[in-house]
Design brief:
The chain is α/β, with parallel strands linked by helices and 267 residues long. The chain is built from 10 helices and 10 strands. Helix 10 links the parallel strand 7 and strand 8.
């Protein structure tokens, strides 16, 4: 088992900050060691220093992406923070009156639970209206999982019963203990890789609502300001912006008005 030194850990702190804007505290040293040790073994390298040199060489973009995937924390579940989904339902219904397509972005969608929760709400609230859900993440690994729409049953306990019956298929035989989001709903959710710490894709478009929840806790102050400014440029006037309940936009932006805890609106 390889042991990571403080200097080596510092290298990977700089690596993930440069790649994704994520600030790793010293408390994450064991996590970094545990997640990257398997790559040392796979690449037959003798130390974390050798692995860092491989990443820094610029010769293996796939390995860099693998390291980013391993060092980004992905924790989510269906219908996390229910009041945000109640707001989504109400805002979407108001939009439906005007007959305009409703677009929402899950800006750190991880394995897709948030994006599919959005889709369930919109399919229910806007049965005759066009809508679109975009889910994005920096990690290609979690996006691959998100596209399958296939989850362990214990991850789905917060899905309302009427949505479970309408939009989900319970696994049987070899798939017992799992749940699959039904195909028609999956086809209305698009997942794409986006690095929030870099220029956003030109084809992303604009949105009526954006969730950036439980993400800013990994950024320092300057990175938070840059990421939020970048994202808010895609939010329509009158659009809503939701963050995690443990987060704040104080000293981050003054371009939004707060309408409830963790919920903001663009004037």
């Amino acid at each position: 088992m390889h042991t990571i030194t403080d200097a080596e850990f510092g290298n990977f702190q700089r690596f993930i900050f440069d790649a994704a804007g994520i600030t790793l505290s010293s408390a994450k040293k064991a996590l970094v060691s545990g997640r990257l040790a398997k790559r040392l073994q796979a690449r037959r390298l003798g130390s974390f220093t050798e692995y860092f040199k491989l990443l820094s060489s610029g010769e293996d973009a796939d390995e860099v992406q693998t390291a980013v995937d391993l060092l980004t924390t992905n924790e989510t579940y269906f219908f996390r923070e229910p009041k945000h989904f109640e707001l989504l339902r109400d805002v979407a219904r108001d939009t439906a009156v005007r007959g305009q397509p409703f677009r929402i972005w899950s800006a750190a969608s991880s394995t897709g639970e948030e994006a599919y929760s959005m889709a369930m709400v919109l399919a229910d609230a806007l049965p005759q209206q066009p809508w679109e859900v975009i889910g994005s993440d920096i990690s290609t690994r979690v996006l691959q999982r998100a596209r399958t729409g296939h989850y362990p049953l214990e991850r789905t306990r917060h899905i309302p019963q009427h949505f479970l019956k309408r939009f989900c298929l319970k696994g049987i035989e070899s798939q017992t203990g799992t749940l699959l989001v039904e195909r028609a709903l999956r086809q209305k959710v698009s997942f794409t890789q986006v690095n929030l710490n870099a220029a956003l894709p030109n084809n992303l478009g604009t949105f009526d609502m954006i969730f950036l929840r439980n993400v800013m806790i990994y950024f320092n102050g300057d990175t938070k300001r840059q990421v939020v400014a970048r994202i808010l440029a895609t939010l329509k006037r009158g659009g809503h912006f939701c963050i995690g309940h443990s987060e704040t936009l104080n000293d981050i932006t003054d371009s939004l008005e707060q309408v409830a805890p963790s919920i903001y609106r663009k004037p």
